[in-house]
Amino acid sequence: MKHNFEQRKQNRIDHANEQAAKNEQKAAALYNHAREMASAIPFGQPILVGHHSEQRDRNYRNKIHNTFGKSFEAQDKAAYYENKAETIENNNAIFSDDPQAIEKLQAKLTSLQDAQAFMKAANKCIKKQDKTAFLQLPFATEKLWEQLNTPDYVNRTGFAGYSLQNNNANIARVKKRLAFLEKQAEKITRDIQINGVRLVENTEANRVQLFFPGIPAEETRKKLKQNGFRWCKSEGAWQRHLTPWAVRIAHDLLQIV
Fold first, then answer.
1. Which of 170, 171, 159, 172 minimizes the C-alpha distance to 119?
2. Predicted confidence (pLDDT) per residue in 66-106, tens digit
3. Number of structural domains in the chain
């Protein structure tokens, strides 16, 4: 599944755009219908309290109100899916099932390490007030020299300690994730049967996949969802991201189906 990562991303964008268009059309149709219904009531016409038509009139007006409400709900959904499509398209996060995840994480790690080295070297230059040495550092500029020499609210100069601490924590996090993905890449896909269900540790897709011979019972589907498994129509499987814990859960679930 890694080989079609970009296609799956595009499919998600297309689906969100389709849902946005569908709800836009639904909102417009409902709004027009509500207006058409409202036009049947003369402008300023009050409800005739005590008249035999009172309840029918109230029901009709409530129906108009509810139809307008459904129109606004559909419009909100359309906006939600428009934003979702844009978010997916502009999302630069590194996903584990991206075939270039390891390369991207390595590049990110290098960037973080370069930033850490620069901040440390810059702080030494600031402490010594060695502007010449500072300007020889990569990324250094006159403007940055002035900024780093401007005391903050507690009269500190240079890069704050928390900036180095946070960056160092990010380095550790990326290293840990990189090590995990490299270990995952070495694994082979496993395919076994438990109680008539295929359990596949799909390393290429980075998914634990469960292939049932038919539609699982409602209680089984409920337990699958409660444990993070989602139905994937394109794969014909219930699946979740591949982790040791996910594999353990899959084994436990299949013991009771």
1. 159
2. 888 888 898 888 888 888 777 776 655 565 656 678 888 89
3. 3
